[in-house]
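hey so i finally got around to running the thing on that chain from the lab meeting. sorry it took forever, my laptop kept dying and i had to restart like 3 times. anyway pasting the input first so we r on the same page abt which one it is
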Amino acid sequence: MVVHIVEDDEAVADALAIALEDLDHHPITYKDAESFFAGGIPSSDDWVIVDIGLPDRCGTDVVRELMGLPTPPSILAISGKSRVNLLQQIRELPGLKILRKPLSIDMLTAAMAQKAII
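ok and heres what got predicted. didnt touch it at all, straight out
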């Protein structure tokens, strides 16, 4: 399965990609929302892991756009923001599954097994 990783922190994106490759997934990393959307629309069989704190467009904007697709991919958000800041940003996305950084492979696989959002 293709897993799109939208994460501006290169070390985090790389670590996620390596972990997902070890699980026989096909990760593709993007440093920002613009490069992600320039790569085309993900299929409904894909996963998108998106950092809430992206530098160009907020990760919640990416989630909203993906959820508006006729057949959206599965979505998993990640964040290193404080709880207060995070709750303010996601208040309009009550079903969004968010994993807090630092991430572990167990956290990631458990969230993906639950299908996260959608």
